[in-house]
Amino acid sequence: MKEMEIFGKMSITDEKDEIIKKYQTAAKAIIKAGMMPFPLTNTFIEILKYYLDEEDLEFIKAFKMKQSMTMEQLKKKLKDMSEEEIDRIAQKLAKKGFIFNQPSSKGFIVYRLMPIVMIGTFEYQFMQNLPESEAELNRIKKIAELYEKLLEELAGKIQEGYDTIVPVFEKQPSTDRTVTLLSSKGTKSIEINEKMEVQEQVLPAQTIEDIINKFDDIAVGNCFCRQYRKMLGHTCELNAPMETCFTFGKSARHVIQQGFGRRVSKEEALKIMKEAEEAGLIHKAFHNSSNIYKDENSICNCCKDCCDIFNLWRMGATPIITSTNYVSQINQDICIGCGTCIERCPMDTISLNDDNKAVVNESHCIGCGICARFCPEEAVTLKEGMRRVYIPPPRLET
Predict the structure, then answer these.
(1) Per the domain annotation, does 397 fall within a domain?
(2) Which terminal CB of the chain, N or C, has fewer other CB atoms within 10 Å?
(3) CA distance 101 to 162
(4) Based on the structure, what is the number of domains in the chain?
(5) Could you report the per-residue pLDDT of 21-30, keeping only the tens digit for each?
(6) What CATH number should be reported for the domain holding residue 54?
(7) Same structural domain for residues 195 and 330?
(8) Cα torsion angle, 6, 9, 15, 21, sign
(9) Residue 190 pLDDT level (bands cut at 50, 70, 90)
(10) 131 lies in the same domain as 195
(11) Residue 15 has what pLDDT?
């Protein structure tokens, strides 16, 4: 039973209930801003408590119905706040990864509420360098544990409503585009075997060099997946470099302004990308509006064991939805069945047949080129042709 009000003032219990309601309202707006159907759990609220104070909650409440707003629109929603106050809180929330506040193509600032994950607070949190203070480091480990629990709750929700949710996933656009590695471990180009029959179209940039050379503003930060896994006590199996998460254009300016990453030249960006390839990482490009024919806004360099694109799929939380211009093919006459491609494939889509030769399940191949790059016998070639790969999350046994 709630405590009675004393002298017309709210009791401590009532005040706590009121604050929880504010967190719940903010949580609903943040969930609505993203692509992932997170359940509104105590874990989600605890994550918000880590970042947000009451002033922040009031500000986020303004985005309940609309994810992006101009200053004039915000002033109508936040009538008790001056323009200076609105801008101050927006800047504070941008530093926390909840607001994107960059000028539009028309020159005025648009304030956009970010989701908790993909792409939002989670990614911006773990792109940054880790603090030196042990106390601060322990706080980040705590938030990493909360994110881990939240993602497990997401997987539970997807599995529980599998038959209803998965058909919705199937209709979604590609979340990313796999940019294929086109050279082997040395400098030799991977053989392009043939073209698939596809409708003629203007293709997006097919090489990392072409993408990098499109942009003047480039930022790099730490791989948020590897940093997050590190905070959970995981060691990357590839011992991959950490600073490999790229953003471009408006996204890069935001990352630099908020201190989530640093500005790099085209030359340094290409050098880091080359090191990522040598480590066996996979290039994943993300495009504006999830449209692969629009400009790229970021590139992740992913490893099989740390990357959440692959981990969330394996744990039954999200599908793999990617666009790719290639599919791998293995020459049975050259393959010696060494298993290198099986070990490297992030999708576990290669297996040995009865003749101890590697074979590819083409419907699950994302065309990353890792198998071709590291095959010691050069038995892997690539078949060219833009396609969408959709692989639903596995249905896990309960």
Answers:
(1) no
(2) N
(3) 36
(4) 2
(5) 999 999 999 9
(6) 1.10.10.10
(7) yes
(8) positive
(9) low
(10) no
(11) 74
Q: What is the pLDDT of residue 215?
A: 97
Tell me the C-alpha distance between 83 and 105, whole Å: 22
Examine the domain organization and report whether 73 and 127 are in the same domain: yes
C-beta of residue 369 within 8 angstroms of C-beta of residue 181: yes
Same domain, 308 and 373: yes
* Cα first-last separation, the chain: 38
CB count within 10 Å of CB 394 equals 13
Residue pLDDT, tens place only, 117-157: 999 999 999 999 999 999 999 999 999 999 999 999 999 99
Residue 183 DSSP label: B
Of 206, 213, 216, nearest to 384 by C-alpha is 206
Q: What is the mean pLDDT of residues 39-58?
A: 97
Please say whether the beta carbons of 90 and 111 come within 8 A.
Answer: yes
- pTM given for the model: 0.90
Which residue, 109, 134, 162, sits at the end of a domain? Answer: 162
**Cα(268)–Cα(126) distance, rounded to whole angstroms?**
22
181: domain range? Answer: 163-391
Which of 162, 185, 205 is at the close of a domain? 162
Rounded to the nearest integer, the mean pLDDT of the chain is: 91
**Which amino acid, 369?**
G
pLDDT (tens digit per residue) in 287-309: 998 899 999 999 999 999 999 99
Q: Which long-range contacts (CB under 8 A, 24 or more apart) does 141-149 make?
A: 141/231, 141/232, 142/50, 143/47, 143/50, 144/228, 144/231, 144/232, 145/232, 146/43, 146/46, 146/47, 146/50, 147/47, 147/117, 147/122, 147/228, 148/232, 149/43
**Is residue 2 included in any domain, yes or no?**
no
Task: Give yes or no: residues 174 and 156 share one domain.
Answer: no
Residue 158 domain-assigned (yes or no) = yes
Per residue in 310-363, pLDDT (tens digit) is: 999 999 999 999 999 999 999 999 999 999 999 999 999 999 999 999 999 999
Note whether 97 and 121 are within 8 A (CB): yes
